[in-house]
Amino acid sequence: MEAITTSRVVPVQLPCRKLSSLFANSSCIELRRYPCRGLVSIMNHPKLLRPVTASVQPQELSALGNESNVVPSKEILDLWRSAEAICFDVDSTVCVDEGIDELAEFCGAGKAVAEWTARAMGGSVPFEEALAARLSLFKPSLSKVEEYLEKRPPRLSPGIEELVKKLRANNIDVYLISGGFRQMINPVASILGIPRENIFANNLLFGNSGEFLGFDENEPTSRSGGKAKAVQQIRKGRLYKTMAMIGDGATDLEARKPGGADLFICYAGVQLREAVAAKADWLIFKFESLINSLD
Predict the structure, then answer these.
(1) Is 248 a catalytic residue?
(2) Distance separating alpha carbons of residues 197 and 168, to the nearest angstrom
(3) Which residues form the active site (predicted)?
(4) Which of 24, 80, 267, 272 is deepest in the core (most CB within 10 A)?
């Protein structure tokens, strides 16, 4: 899923918001130059990683109205246990933060960006509109992104390392499918032992002087319905019989459709998005629920 050499660049422009939590990404950077008209985009260079396992208090159930999906049915448990591939969202799922919000805060913007993130995850605006709008608020330069990656190690959700280790030990393939950026996700994948080819995410693009130009619109995750398309692409290419998607947002829920994920598990240990949680096959607040169910 490397970005293509002749990428269409999506320039951006717009307003601002602040976030408090610290996103973490890694001290691993990989620079990738694009021959198309002097564009440059960063990927990842292997360096020693120091993940931080965040201490997060699970969200409490509020006015969901229907709490029956907190206790999975036998059918749902059977689907989970028979899954041959598990796809994880990254922000507010594998990691406790929203990467773009944290990068914006690091760059001196934050509040308005996080507001756009909330809209995108709640499904009230098209994802591509929210992505372009958020980036336009702070237009991160190459040097600023590199500095961010050096100073902010990934903050992993409690239990995610154990869950991924158990899945891999059971010969279950693991994928990361995110509306975030490869620059921030590659280090997380390295920590969890997930191969780069199992990452589906967006890519920032820069000019020869390191100035921000936009994002690669050719990535399926750059638009609404992109996660569903990525899951369908994985399934078609690998011929999996059963797949599951785990995440917290509306874009993750979209992945559960014909030819895509058979099962959507809503992880609400960081963010409880009620509209999404209510439609999930299984609502969890700790990854231990999934770990224990595999025994």
Answers:
(1) no
(2) 15
(3) 89, 91
(4) 267
> What pLDDT is attached to residue 223?
87
Helix (H, G, I), strand (E, B) or coil at 243: strand
Q: Quick check: pTM over 0.85? A: no
pLDDT digits (tens, 9 = 90+) for 263-286: 999 999 999 999 999 999 999 999
The token duo for 231 is: 């899951």
Nearest of 202, 204, 251, 248 to residue 231 by alpha carbon: 251
Question: Of 89, 97, 101, 216, which is the active-site residue?
Answer: 89
14-31 confidence digits (pLDDT tens) = 333 333 333 333 333 333
Which amino acid appears at position 9 of this protein? V
**Run of H or E including 150:** helix 142-151
Give yes or no: 89 in active site.
Answer: yes
Residue 63 has pLDDT above 60, yes or no: no
Q: How far apart are CA 237 and CA 5, in angstroms?
A: 23
